[in-house]
Design brief:
Blueprint: H1 9-32, H2 45-60, H3 79-89, H4 95-98, H5 105-115, H6 118-129, E1 135-138, E2 154-158, E3 161-172, E4 179-185, H7 192-195, E5 196-202, E6 208-214, E7 227-238, E8 242-243, H8 249-285, E9 287-288, E10 291-292, H9 297-327, H10 332-359, H11 361-365, H12 371-381, H13 388-400, H14 415-425, H15 427-435
The structure holds flavin-adenine dinucleotide (FAD).
Flavin-adenine dinucleotide binds at residues 104, 137-140, 145-147, 170-172, 216, 227, 380, 383-384, 386-387, 389-390, 393.
């Protein structure tokens, strides 16, 4: 009987060290370096220099790139432990990079490790794992995101080269990446799940143009964000630049998503806890009409509701992580729980951050607390990695799988029929009961 919600004491010590280290050493970087690319672009001298000694400490502690298996220099911790680590890392924009587990590099490394040739591993994977370069995963197109069936960016084999033509959209970190993993249509005559492939494209390949960068939210000047609008015009890469076989693109891509979504969800738990901390500090500090906000029942309700939602969400994420570790595969059951967690995430964030904002009054609306920054993440969480609706559809299909329609006019639980069935089966019992009256 193994229902256990405790963290093993040795690992807890590591988490305690991380907790302290993130608060003391990394969170200050979030205040000092606030440019959109600061934690992610290794060519920026200031943030890169500030992170270097911190990365070294993480490596010395054996906590660098823990999502990797031991064969790639990681710990092979599994998703539950990674989830608990990401809960701490979620408090800071810089922390995932300092710990060598920043998306999309983590997922890209997983793909290269599984499908890359020895040359590709040496050229791209090694410097990526060492945190020396950034990478990009480019799938979404301007006219199509959630529906891959509408992708049109094509790659055609000409001699020993793939020739790419088309456009991509919201390709995070494309501008400063050393290489991009690009999803292209290689066979338009079959459904996209059999006709797409993934190519490794060096950032400086002729024919690859960053038309414009895009930012999330309103603060940045147009053109200043980290999400690239890309155009490929007769962009040529070698025949061997393909990962997996032609047409295998979606299968290859699947290997990057599962764990990544759990880490993202646990980083969101870290953010949610931070919002709850702020809510509580405010409630215990602000007096109105002769009493603390914390003494008012409507404030208590906000705190209780937030605590309940965060705890439910956190346990659900950890349950999904535990399932992945148990099955060591992305089974249907595992995929259902990952989709459920992904679908729940924006709603919990919206509710908790809104309450925290509201309780801070005008200060909460201002640019002088982190709360409006958190608020801007609510819609992002519902879109990035696929819209909520798509994940809900996946959950519902799984929940409905194997269930059956009623065979008669009324449902199986229609009481008159149910009583009739019970009556027929237990007629003797019923007679005795009546006789005893
Ligand atoms: C911060 C951020 C970073 C990103 N980084 C990357 C990246 O690095 N690489 C990359 O390739 N992409 C990236 N994306 C793009 C992201 O994957 C897409 O935005 C997402 O898949 C949705 O596609 P879309 O924006 O085209 O929206 P659409 O597909 O147009 O969907 C818009 C809306 O239509 C509705 N809808 C869509 N499908 C359904 C459905 N089946 N049922 C019901 N309603 C539906 C939903 O309300 C949905 O929100 C990023 C996005 C964001 C916000």
């Amino acid at each position: 009987m193994a229902w256990d919600f405790e963290t093993d004491p040795d690992f807890q010590k590591k988490l305690d060290w991380m907790d302290e280290f993130v608060s003391r050493e990394i969170e200050p970087l979030d205040l000092i370096f606030r440019g959109p690319a600061d934690p992610f672009d290794p060519s920026l001298p200031g943030p890169t220099a500030a992170m270097a000694p911190l990365k070294k400490q993480v490596q010395e502690r054996g906590l660098w790139a823990c999502h990797l298996g031991p064969e790639l220099g990681g710990q092979g911790y599994g998703q539950l432990k990674l989830g608990l680590m990401n809960e701490i890392l979620g408090r800071s924009r810089f922390a995932p990079t300092v710990f060598g587990c920043q998306a999309p590099d983590t997922g890209n490394a997983e793909i290269l490790a599984r499908f890359g040739s020895p040359e590709q591993k040496q050229r791209y994977l090694q410097p990526l794992l060492a945190g020396e370069i950034a990478s990009c995963y480019s799938m979404t197109e301007p006219q199509a995101g959630a529906d891959p069936g509408q992708f049109t960016c094509r790659a055609v084999l000409e001699g020993n080269q793939w020739v790419i033509n088309g456009e991509k959209w919201f390709a995070s970190h494309a501008d400063f990446s050393r290489f991009l993993l690009v999803v292209v249509v290689t066979n338009p005559d079959v459904p996209i799940h059999q006709g797409a492939s993934i190519l490794v494209v060096d950032r400086d390949t002729p024919g690859l143009e960053v038309v414009r960068n895009t930012a999330v939210g309103m603060r940045e000047e147009p053109g200043s964000g980290v999400h690239g609008y890309l155009r490929f015009t007769d962009c040529r890469v070698p025949r061997e630049a393909i990962l997996g076989k032609p047409g295998q693109g979606f299968e290859v891509a699947q290997s990057r998503l599962g764990g990544g979504r759990i880490h993202h969800a646990m980083r969101t738990v870290g953010l949610l806890k931070r919002a709850l901390d702020m809510m509580c500090e405010r409630a215990l500090s602000r007096r109105t009409k002769g009493e603390l906000l914390a003494d008012k029942q409507m404030t208590q309700e906000k705190i209780a509701d937030s605590y309940i939602q965060i705890t439910q969400f956190r346990l659900h994420v950890l349950y999904a992580a535990w399932l992945i570790d148990k099955h060591q595969a992305y089974t249907r059951e595992v995929r259902r729980e990952i989709a459920a967690v992904k679908a729940a995430m924006p709603g919990v964030l919206r509710d908790v951050v809104y309450r925290a904002l509201h309780l801070h009054g005008s200060l909460g609306m201002s640019n002088e607390t982190p709360l409006m920054g958190m608020w801007a993440m609510v819609p992002e969480m519902g879109i990035v990695d696929g819209p909520t609706e798509v994940h809900k559809v996946a959950v519902a299909k799984e929940v409905l799988r194997g269930r059956e329609a009623s065979t008669g006019l009324f449902p199986g639980y229609y009481l008159p029929n149910a009583l009739q069935a019970v009556g027929d089966r237990f007629a003797g019992l019923l007679e005795r009961e009546v006789g005893n009256l």
